[in-house]
Write a structure and sequence with these properties.
Layout: H1 4-13, H2 19-31, H3 46-50, E1 55-56, E2 65-66, E3 70-73, E4 76-80, E5 85-89, H4 101-109, E6 113-118, E7 122-129, E8 135-145, E9 150-158, E10 166-175, E11 180-189, E12 195-204, E13 209-218, E14 222-230, E15 235-244, E16 249-258, E17 264-273, E18 278-287, E19 294-304, E20 310-319, E21 324-333, H5 337-345, H6 350-366, H7 372-386, H8 391-395, H9 401-406
Parallel strand pairs: 1-8, 2-4, 3-7, 6-8, 7-9, 8-10, 9-11, 10-12, 11-13, 12-14, 13-15, 14-16, 15-17, 16-18, 17-19, 18-20, 19-21
Antiparallel strand pairs: 3-4, 5-6
Helix pairs in contact: 2-4, 5-6
Length: 410
């Protein structure tokens, strides 16, 4: 496979001389770029993406304006709240055993990363905006924390003008002990928009906890790859809601590693698939020999709205010790006929009854968000797509992106 990533980018990476890049280059050489035979990308047509010709976009830093939220345009921070420390840095800590080759490629293509230093309790809203057409947009973010604080990050994405672009974005989160962390991603994709591949790494030190929410809606392709590493008595909860239609291929590939004693993890995925969409849930919970006392739970549920929809569901456990409590499961089916009959017997027409059941199925994940404003924003995203008007499609007519997505004034 001849890739624009290899042809135009890797040659310049031979000159990197900072430690993280050396590790990334070594790991990328070992893993190689993914193909249709790579397990994590088997259902995603990755070869088609990597063999296309893109314009290599190289971001240029600019002064950061003060605003009520963080705005990142094509990988460059253009505004941020006062008091949030943001720096660009070459040196960064990366995972030296990530399963995803594009995690390392993203680091290599990002000579500098955006580091957000959280030193006290904080809530951060981030708007990622993409404007480049047929471009390779690669950038990474690093979040570091002080011990014993609470941090909440919610992300939204706009790419009305980024047609046929490939976005390699990812975040490395390093939580100190006793940190309470929440990460919420809300991304709607419509036809002829950019294709995102998000590759994250979340490291939880002793007694820290993280809640990860992902909301993926729309009818175009996109994939997220997540690795979480849990240390002593830490806790990681992941919740994924996917609503895909058209011929979109969307989903989550994840690895949750229990690397020390008494850690807990829970992962729940709800998938709603219509038309010819393909949903992907390929997730493994790995319990190392040092992971005694682990409690782990994993479950995937999928509702197929018609015969053309398809769900790939692979919940997995990999356990190297006896002293654990772990379970996993998966269900794939249609809407419950008895529930539909009950609603119709109360005078509700079939189509409205179907909508009520689908909304109830989705709301279980959405309503778990604690922040009311973020919760309402995600409700809006889902309902706009479900009722036929994608969020990006709507916003493209006016470009009031921050108003619509964040509920903030520009």
């Amino acid at each position: 496979m001849k890739s624009i990533v290899l042809a135009e980018s890797l040659q310049e990476l031979q000159n990197v001389n900072f430690e993280a890049a050396k590790i990334a280059l070594e790991r990328l050489v070992k893993l190689q770029l993914p193909t249709k035979k790579t397990e994590e990308y088997r259902y995603f047509d990755i070869e088609k993406l990597l063999s296309k010709t893109y314009n290599r976009f190289k971001p240029t830093k600019q002064p950061i304006e003060e605003g009520s939220f963080v705005e990142i345009v094509d990988g460059v921070v253009v505004r941020a709240p006062k008091g949030l420390e943001i720096v660009y840095t070459k040196e960064r800590k990366i995972d030296d055993a990530h399963f995803d080759a594009l995690y390392y490629l993203g680091h290599l293509l990002s000579s500098e990363v955006i580091e957000m230093k959280c030193k006290s309790d904080i809530k951060i809203k981030i708007l990622h905006r993409y404007t480049q057409t047929e471009a390779l947009i690669a950038y990474r973010m690093v979040v570091t924390t002080a011990p014993n604080i609470s941090v909440s990050i919610s992300e939204s994405f706009i790419g009305c003008d980024a047609k046929e672009s490939l976005v390699l974005y990812g975040c490395d989160v390093h939580l100190q002990r006793d940190v309470r962390f929440e990460f919420i991603k809300d991304e709607t994709l419509v036809e002829d928009i950019y294709t995102p591949i998000h590759s994250h790494f979340i490291e939880l030190q002793d007694q820290s906890s993280a809640n990860f929410f992902s909301f993926d809606f729309g009818n175009e392709d996109g994939l997220q790859l997540i690795k979480a590493k849990l240390m002593h008595a830490s806790s990681f909860n992941a919740n994924h809601l996917l609503y895909a239609k058209g011929e979109g291929k969307r989903g989550t590939v994840s690895q949750i590693v229990h690397a020390a004693k008494d850690a807990k993890s829970s992962q729940k995925a709800k998938n709603i698939l219509g038309e010819k969409a393909r949903g992907i849930f390929d997730a493994i919970i790995k319990i190392e020999p040092e992971g005694g006392g682990t409690k782990a739970y994993q479950n995937s549920q999928a509702v197929l709205l018609n015969d053309g929809a398809y769900m790939v569901s692979k919940p997995q456990l990999e356990i190297y010790i006896d002293d654990v409590e772990a379970s996993h499961g998966s269900t794939i089916g249609e809407l419950d006929e008895q529930q539909l009959f009950y609603l119709r017997s109360r005078g509700i027409v079939l189509e409205e009854a179907r909508k009520m059941l689908i909304l109830a199925f989705a709301n279980e994940i959405i309503d778990a968000i604690e922040d009311e404003s973020v919760r309402e924003s995600v409700h809006l995203s889902f309902e706009q797509v479900y009722y036929g008007q994608g969020q990006l499609e709507c916003i493209a007519t006016c470009h009031n992106c921050s108003d619509a997505i964040l509920g903030e004034e520009s």
